[in-house]
Every structure is written in C-alpha cells, then in structure tokens.
Amino acid sequence: MATLRLNGIRKCYPNGITALHGIDLDVGDGELMVVVGPSGCGKSTLLRTLAGLESITEGELTINDQRVNALEPAARDIAMVFQNYALYPHMSVFDNMSYALKNRGTPKDEIRRRVTETAQLLDLAELLDRRPRQLSGGQRQRVAMGRAIVREPQVFLFDEPLSNLDAKLRVQMRLEIRRLQKRLGVTSVYVTHDQVEAMTLADRLVVMNGGHVEQCGTPMALYERPATRFVASFLGSPAMNFLPVTAHRGGVVLPNGNPVALPVAIPEGRAATLGVRPEHLIEATSVADATEVLEVTVEMLEPLGADTLAYTRLPGLEEWLVVRLDGAHAAREGQRLSLAFSMAHCHVFDSQDARVPLADTEAQACQ
Amino acid sequence: MHYRRPGLDRLSHALLAVCCLLFLLPVWLAFTASTHTLGALYSQTAPLWFGEAGWDNYRHLLSGSIGGLGTDVLTLLINSTIMALGIAIGKIAISVLAAYAIVFFDFPFRRLCFWLIFITLMLPVEVRILPTFEVVADLGLLDSYAGLILPLIASATATFLLRQFYLTIPPELVEAARIDGAGPWRFLRDILLPLSKTNLAALFVIMFLYGWNQYLWPLLITNDADYLTIVVSLKRLLTSADGLVPWQNVTATAVLAMLPPIAVILLMQRYFVKGLVDSEK
Q1: DSSP B69
Q2: Could you tell me the pTM of the whole model?
Q3: C or N: which end of chain B has fewer Cβ atoms within 10 Å?
Q4: Nearest Cα to A10, choosing from A69, A71, A75, A65?
Q5: What is the share, in percent, of chain B residues with pLDDT greater than 70?
C-alpha cells in the first residue's frame, strides 16, 4: 500500500524540449488516478518518469515518503502495463508472469503459488503454457495485467492498456480493471487519451495539456465545473458547445444579439465564451421565458439509439450547435428547433479561457 | 504466387532438374574418382561409376601420413574444424556484444563506433594481410590455432545484421524487462539471445563456411604440418607429388572436406525452421 507524491516534476530533454512543466500531484493509498489529455500533452512522459524509464530533470518523486528519483525502475517496486503489452514473445504465459519474481530471487514454490493465484483471478489458468502469439488480444491484455499483479507492487502504472482492443472488449476490460484495482487496493496511475475511459475508471482525474496539469479532481467535479475551456472541451462526448459572447448588463449577449441573463462577473463589453453541453440544451416547448430561447435550424442528425445528436446552426454563427435529443424525437433535417439553456449548467470562460464562476448558482456547490 | 498453368510448372521443374544435375556433376565425379586406384584413373577418362579401391583410399588418407603433406587427413579435418568453429563462434560472440552495445546503450560517439565497424567491410583480409601477418608474427602466434582464428574473428557483417535485428525489437520490451528487474546481462541472456536464435543459427552457418573456406591466411601463417588446414592441403596435394598427381587422394580429400560444412548446414537447418515457426515479435 502506498502513496505517491509528485513535487514540481519537470522533464526537459537534451534537445531543449520541455515535456513537463512542474507537475504537482498526490495519489492517495489505493487510489486510481487517471491522467488524460490529447496526444503530446506529456501524460506518457509523466508515467515514464514515475516508472523510472525517464530521468527527472527537476522536482521530487516520493513513494511512501521515500524519495525515488534516482532509483532504477526495478527498485521502485512498481509494475507497468504497456499499450502493446510488451510480453516476452519467446516465453510461455507462466514464464512471462514469473520473470520479475525470478529476477528477484523469489523461491520457486512461492512463484508457482503466486502465478497460479493470479492466473485464477484473471481467468488465465488454462493458458499458462501458451505463448503470447497463441493468445487473443484480450487474453494478452490479461497476461500483461497478470504480470503486473503477480509482483504485488506498491504502484501500478497503466499506459493506455486498452487502446489496442476492439470497442466491445475495451468496455469489458475497463470494468475488469476497475474491479481488480478496487479488490487489490493498489495505488494506480492510469494514462489514457480516451475521456470515456478516464471518466469511468477514475477515482480522481488529471487533465493535462501542453505539459501542465489543467485540472485535477473527481470525474464529476471536472465534468460539472471545468476550470478551463480546455477541460470543458476535453471531457464529455460530444464535446461542449462554445459560443462567443460579450458581457452585457449582468449577463452575456450572443453573437446574434440574443441576450442571456447569467449572474457572471465580467466587466461590461468584455469578450467571453459561453459553454453549454449538448445534453443541457433543452427543447423549449415548455419553457415560458422567451428571452433565453435560441431558434436554430437542424442541419444534420446522428441517431445513436438512445439519443439523437442534432447538429444545428444558430443564425449568424459559424460553429455547429450540437444538441442531444431523445432517441424517440421526431426531428427532421431542415426543421427549426427552439432551445432553452439549462442555466445551472452553463459555463462562462473569460478571454484567458479560465472559467468564471456563476455568482448564485454555484457559490454553495463549490468545495 | 500461385498460377494455374501446368505447362509452366513442368517447364520450371525440368529446368530445376537440369540445373541440379549440372551442379551435382562435379561432386559426383569427385566422389566416383575417389574410389579408383591411381592407375585406373590415368588409364581411362573420368569415371562415372565407382571403382573397387574406395575403401582403401579413404582408410589410407585417414590413418597414415600422406606423402607431401606430412600428416593425415583426420588431423587436417580437426584443424579446419577448430579454425572454422573458432571463427564462427568468435565472430558471433563479438558481433552480439558489439550490436548490443550499439543498439541498446547510450554512449558518446555511438554512431561513430557503428560506422567505424561498418567501414571495415571495405578492408577484407587480403587487403590488410601484410600488417596482420606482422602483428601475428610479433605476437608469436605463427603456427598456432590462435593465429589462425584471432585475425579473422571480428565481423562487420554479423554486427550489422544483428544490429538490424535488434532495432526491430520494440522498446517496450526492453522497458518491461527493466521494470521486471533484468539488468543488461540478464536481458541479453533471457530475452535478446533467445529472440535472435534464428539469426544466430543463420550467421553461424555463414561464418562457419567462411572460416572453413579460408585459404590465403592459413597458407601464410602455417608451416608446421600439425596446423595445416584441409582447404590448403588440397592445393598442396596437387603440386607436391613427384610424378603423377594422386587424383584419387585429391578427390577423396575434397569429398571429406565437404562433409563438415554439409553437416553444419543440415544441423542448423532444423533451427531455422524451428525458429521461424516458434518466434514472433
């Protein structure tokens, strides 16, 4: 059981590129911390510095309050699951799983006991004699997990372990990883670029961008109160709609001149961005207040079954406005829709893309 | 590729058969000639069928000292085998380590080291034979196995081939091994060598044949009949006889000289196939 603490971790490569600009994070005992971000944001580099595969240029990394900056990967007592599994192709599943133990000089019967136990846990008992190439993608993935679990490490590191699986298996393995992690209670850091994976797995979520941590918190906290426009756009699928607005008399004005009353503290006349998620745009048939209704034209429909995504356009606006309609909705392309905002779910971002808190709806909700 | 053209099939098989016969003919002639007596060989044209003296010829070569050579063929075979094995194993050992260092370790002038090794391809034994001889003579290695083997033991070709293979090994595999606590030597032994089994078998065959067929270098540095190799002795047999060339001895020695390389190829062939079936990256 372990806690992991990152204190101002910086990573600069010899060619002058800085991949990490001072990362501060605390991962609690038994916590599953998911690091998510677009490719090139430094999330994999972060994981590799934790593993010891990359050196740390500056800052301090501690596991259980012990500084491990200079320790070899094997000495840090961590286990890593790689994206392409990195199984040893010439070894049987058993040998793959026991290799680390063997290198550590664990007694033979102890190795056998632990591998058998782990194989049982992962449903691999029948496959112990096979070679990796004789396994399906999902099985290989489980062997890679098994190789990590057998070692009973302080920390698990996952480097996009599900991205080589097909969609159905991915969902299945996602649940499996969650279940195992909770059952074993091992502190874990999980890197992914898939925001659905991130939301569903995480105890806490770290959104990274350009080598910085944009925001860290529980998935729902990040979803409901994204600190920056980047976080808002990255989490949630389909992505949040952003409308350029101008601050005006205790609210904002949409580009088509439509005023929206929002209790937001931005100086009069300043440009800002209004963010609304597709699921928070409600069809306004039942809403009485006509001033906050947007008249849009449906240009394209994407029926997903349970929901239908409507790509609509507001007159005088370049961007699509995506609306999540009920799957049974009878919308047709070319049809006009009246949409109302769900006030509590609006987000306003200032010109620096930082979120401006809404005065009355949120003061009590913020922690 | 698979075409449904029976005519083409038959034609290509016929062509293959003719070529095989063409390649086999000299070998066959040597083999048949080695079973005749000297007198019989000189009294007729090249015989296409076996004679009666085969057993005697081979026994004579393997047991007693042969005129003009001062040693028996068994010694020659052993010498050649030691030299070829030494060269093949030495080349592989050195190339494995060199390629390992060049691919997996980060040290200053790594690329330069690789290119320095690579350009030695332009300097075969024949080009550097005088300085090499000088060095070997100064070291007192004339007429010794070490003298036969050491100057031929470095191989840019093998280093290059192994480097190309090592470069295809996914970096995650190296990292996984590192996390699993495998140090450099353990990684080499447990992961790299088993994975390159096929390549090593192929290299071994090539290098064994290279060593076996060495002519100029052994010719230069061996005077003592105890260190003579079989390839060199073949030429010596042709010239050393006082009168008639002992063709039955020459051909029998040639046939014997072919056996170890054939054995090595047949033995290693199993590993190629096994390696191809077993391993996968």
Answers
A1: T
A2: 0.82
A3: N
A4: A69
A5: 94
Q: Between A316 and A94, name the one with better pLDDT.
A: A94
- In this structure, which amino acid lies at residue B45? T
In degrees rounded to 5, what are phi and psi of residue A204? -130, 155
> For the segment A2-36, what is each residue's pLDDT rounded down to a tens digit?
899 999 999 999 888 999 999 999 999 999 999 99
Structure tokens at A151: 């070692």
Q: What is the dihedral of CA B189, B195, B199, B203, to 10 degrees?
A: 10
Q: What is the pLDDT of residue A95?
A: 95
Name the one residue in this structure whose structure tokens are 């947007």.
A294
The tens digit of pLDDT for each residue in A245-270 reads: 888 877 888 877 777 777 777 888 88
Tell me how close the Cα of A3 comes to any Cα of chain B, in angstroms. 19
The per-residue b/e assignment along B70-80, b for 16 or more CB within 10 angstroms, e otherwise, is ebbbebbbebb
Structure tokens, A281: 């745009």
Residue ranges and CATH numbers for the domains of chain A are: 4-229 (3.40.50.300), 239-362 (2.40.50.140)
Report the domain count for chain B: 1
Is the CB of residue A162 less than 8 Å from the CB of residue A197?
yes
Q: Which two structure tokens, joined as six digits, stand for A176?
A: 């499996």
Cα separation, B176 vs A99, in Å, equals: 10
A114-123 tens-digit pLDDT: 999 999 999 8
SS3 A297: strand
Q: What is the CATH number of the domain that holds B125?
A: 1.10.3720.10
A53/B175 Cβ within 8 A:
yes
* CB–CB contacts below 8 A, A to B: 65
Instruction: Tell me which of A88, A96, A159, A191 to substitute to probe the interface with B (most B C-beta atoms closer than 10 Å).
Output: A88
A32: β partners = A188
More confident residue, B59 or B93: B93
Residue A352 identity: Q
Mean pLDDT of A281-300: 72
Residue B236 lies in a domain: yes
